[in-house]
Specification:
Helix content is 39%, strand content 15%. By secondary structure, it is of the alpha+beta class. It has a four-stranded mixed sheet. The chain is globular and about 55 Å long. The protein starts with 20 loop residues before the first helix and ends in a 7-residue tail after the last helix. The structure holds zinc ion.
């Protein structure tokens, strides 16, 4: 269990979300329901949902194979749907519940979505038993990138910073 380290966000929130174990258990039960139902429907065994102010905002199920979208993880699907519901690219104040520990993609999506809290049921080891690469990718991120089979090459042309120059010079940009 100690082989992989979980990247975690620094705890900078002024007020920690109120944790209620019974409430967590109820929402997690729903994510598991979504995940099991998704298997029956031919999809991956993952379900997630977004809750804000005690209310369900949106649910998501893994849609990787159905949508031919390797990024359509349940958490990402739930985040996308929730943002459409609230009409905002930020889910600050919300909690992401998921049937399985978020993979690096989904954990980063949670960070980008600015949720206040992530709660999961199964973990990366359960996912590995199911044949999923969550654990492997966590271990990969813990290793020096030069050891990866995937080359990730920094090529820096002279105008590499032009997009950021344009961004910073744009008075009406929408910061996020
Ligand atoms: Zn994921």
């Amino acid at each position: 269990m100690s082989a992989a380290e979980t990247p975690t966000a620094p705890d900078t929130a002024g007020s920690a979300p109120v944790v209620d174990a019974a409430v967590d258990a109820r929402w997690l039960a729903r994510t598991i329901e979504l995940a099991v139902a998704n298997v029956a429907a031919g999809g991956g065994p993952f379900g997630a949902l977004i809750v804000r102010d005690g209310e369900l905002v949106a649910e998501g199920q893994n849609r990787v194979t159905a949508n031919l979208d390797p990024t359509a993880h349940a958490e990402v699907v739930a985040i996308r749907a929730a943002c459409q519901v609230v009409g905002d690219f930020s889910l600050a104040g919300a909690t992401l519940y998921t049937s399985c520990e978020p993979c690096p993609l989904c954990l980063a999506a949670a960070l980008w979505a600015r949720v206040d809290r992530v709660v999961y049921a199964a973990d990366r080891h359960d996912a590995a038993r199911g044949g999923f690469d969550d654990l492997e990718f966590y271990e990969l991120f813990g290793r020096d990138r030069s050891t990866w089979e995937l080359p990730v090459d920094a090529v820096r042309p002279g105008d590499a910073s032009a997009p950021f120059d344009a961004w910073l010079a744009h008075d009406h940009r929408t910061d996020y």
